[in-house]
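so my prof wants the structure for this chain in the tokens format not the other one, which i didnt know existed until like an hour ago. anyway here's the sequence
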Amino acid sequence: MIEALILAGSLALVQTSDDCSPRVENAVAIWWLRPLELAPGASASLAAYWMDRPNSLERAPRHCVTNIAFSPEGIVALEADGVSARVMDDAPSAALVTITGRIGDQSLEAQIRVVRPEDAPLTGSWRQAIATCSEGVVPEPIEELVFNATGGFSVTWTPFEVYKDYWGSYRFDPAYQSFSAEVEDGNQRPANLDLAGTASLVGNELILEDVWFGDPTRIAAGGGRCTYRFVRTGTPG
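here's what i got, hopefully its the right format
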């Protein structure tokens, strides 16, 4: 194999005839970074990516992923297509399965957590459909609101690869419809957030009332209290 290093800015690009090797020197092979939450019967692609820096991903050819294994066995299985994994219908809730594999000369490792919808009803990804606020405020639409089964959430106005605007932890009591969230960190965190209110689910819609998620176009301004309606865009995962 003949390799030539080409400097492009701060990146060392690698020209190689092996399409299972990264184009960028020192890139790391990944599936996903955090446990992927899936309900019984759900599937996930095992397409792998090369990552050379945060928020920079390049998809690897499907045939490059080999030696896929699951531990423990019997909870997640490889689909007939050989490039996706399916959670078994009788998988126990909260089970954590480690997936391993290889791409070229690098190893791959990721995890799937089994989440039954009744155990964590907000889990998944949501997109803002509309928001009605006091004082006539019209906030910038949230394109991606994500809740996971272990109490984490994130808000992103303009999704791009793995970028998030801010994130933290949340609590939801379905019996009383009480909702609260606390921001822990972020890349873009508006001032005067108000994340304590009520939440209700109607089919694939989530209604959050008396809250303010902020607005990236008015980063220092408050928005009073709003009622947000979100539509589900992704099941747990």
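also thought this was worth mentioning. The CA atoms of residues 147 and 153 lie 4 Å apart.
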